[in-house]
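Below is a filled-in request sheet from our internal design queue. Each sheet records the structural input a requester submitted and the sequence that came back. We keep these sheets so that new team members can see what a complete request looks like end to end.

REQUESTER: design group, bay 2
PRIORITY: normal
MODE: inverse folding
CHAIN LENGTH: 105
BACKBONE (tokenized):
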């Protein structure tokens, strides 16, 4: 079970976008995540008339390492560490370390 999942609201804890918040769009390889509006780069593209694409400078998101992200705790509005807990009915759930609340509940 992963600590961060697609659709989670996260806070960047380190790097040029420190303090910004965004939603995880998808999971990359080796612990990297694509986060909406975070780690934007400018990509220079050539026009391709065969495909109908125009050339120019395009801004796109690049993957950011999971160690630079923290799950956003909606109660505190800050990034929080995530732990795991097994409930009485046998389900394994993610919980916030600061207050023990179940993530997404």
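RETURNED SEQUENCE:
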């Amino acid at each position: 079970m992963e600590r961060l999942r697609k659709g989670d609201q996260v806070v960047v804890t380190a790097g040029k976008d420190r303090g910004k918040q965004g939603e995880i769009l998808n999971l990359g390889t080796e612990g990297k995540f694509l986060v909406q509006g975070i780690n934007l780069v400018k990509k220079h593209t050539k026009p391709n008339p065969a495909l109908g694409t125009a050339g120019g400078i395009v801004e796109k998101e690049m993957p950011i390492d999971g160690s630079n992200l923290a799950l956003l705790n909606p109660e505190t509005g800050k990034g929080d560490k995530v732990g795991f807990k097994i409930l009485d009915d046998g389900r394994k759930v993610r919980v916030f370390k600061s207050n023990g609340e179940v993530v997404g509940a």
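SHEET NOTES:
- Strands lie at 9-12, 21-27, 32-35, 40-45, 56-61, 64-65, 69-73, 78-80, 82-86, 92-96.
- The mean pLDDT is 92.
FILED BY: M.R.
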